[in-house]
Amino acid sequence: MSVAAGSLKGRTILMSGGSRGIGLAIALRAARDGANVVLLAKTDQPDPRLPGTVHTAVAEIEAAGGRAVAVVGDVRKEESVTAAVDRAVTEFGGIDIVLNNASAIDLSPIGKMSPKRYDLMLDINARGTFLLTSAALPHLYESENPHVLTLSPPLNLDPGWFAAHAPYTVSKYAMTMLTVGLAGQRHPRPVAANCLWPRTTIATAAVQNIVGGDAAMAVSRRPEIMADAAHALLVRPAAEVTGQCCIDEDVLRAVGVTDFAPYRYGTAREADLKIDLFLPGGQHG
């Protein structure tokens, strides 16, 4: 659904991940405007555990009305990030939006998580956000309306979030701190740097496979709510909003959305939807 004035037509988005889930939904919403999307993702070949590859995502984006390029690579690696930035500039002439979407999740507490898994999660979530944003920043300065949008939560220091899954909390909060830090830096022109997080859990492969299976999916919303909220933020002038940790529902209410029933994934009532991690009312695990 179209929920905000403004368009992303002709704008170029550089996104980490995006083969499926929230990232793909955001890319498809932008594609309906006629945006360009460059996806940096590892999913070159189908995985029986996960839907879609970076190539099927590109096909969907183009079918929706956008232009898209797949860069098979790893957001943890500087050479992959550099290749994605260079490809965006070569194919589309620049970068207008960086979308830090790629993220690994493991809700194990300290003592239950291996060092290898910890390193993987911190490298994708924190290092990946740092690398992609840093590499694209000089090109964002050439954009008329540059935005960095990171899919990470507000900084909620309730000790429960650390007790339940400190490693994951650290990795997601690091994404937020990097983004808020960028917003506070001096720039030669206004650069919007914001975070976006869902009010409820979102029906994605991560929720299905890690958070709670079919039961968790039934009390979740569809990724399209995050896509519409991201669109509403990205069409705004960069100088208007920066350094904010935004919640999807709040963003959409601000542009006039009052009925959220169409975003429900299952048949659960609005009152029964599961509040996401790091928000008041969410379950620590």
SSE topology sketch:
Elements: E1 12-16, H1 21-33, E2 36-41, H2 54-63, E3 67-72, H3 78-92, E4 97-100, H4 115-140, E5 147-150, H5 159-184, E6 192-197, H6 205-218, H7 224-234, E7 245-247, H8 248-254
Reported CATH architecture: 3-Layer(aba) Sandwich
Q: How many structurally independent domains?
A: 1
Class inferred from helices and paired strands: alpha/beta
Main β-sheet description: 7 strands, parallel
Based on Cα principal axes, name the global outline.
globular
CATH topology: Rossmann fold
Number of helices: 8
Mean pLDDT: 95
End-to-end separation in angstroms reads 33 Å
Name of the CATH class = Alpha Beta
What is the β-strand count?
7
CATH level-4 homologous superfamily: NAD(P)-binding Rossmann-like Domain
Succession of helices and strands: EHEHEHEHEHEHHEH
Structure description:
The protein has a single domain, classed as Rossmann fold (3-Layer(aba) Sandwich). The protein is 43% helix and 12% strand. The protein contains eight helices and seven strands. Helix 5 links the parallel strand 5 and strand 6. The two termini are 33 Å apart. The model has no long low-confidence stretch (mean pLDDT 95).
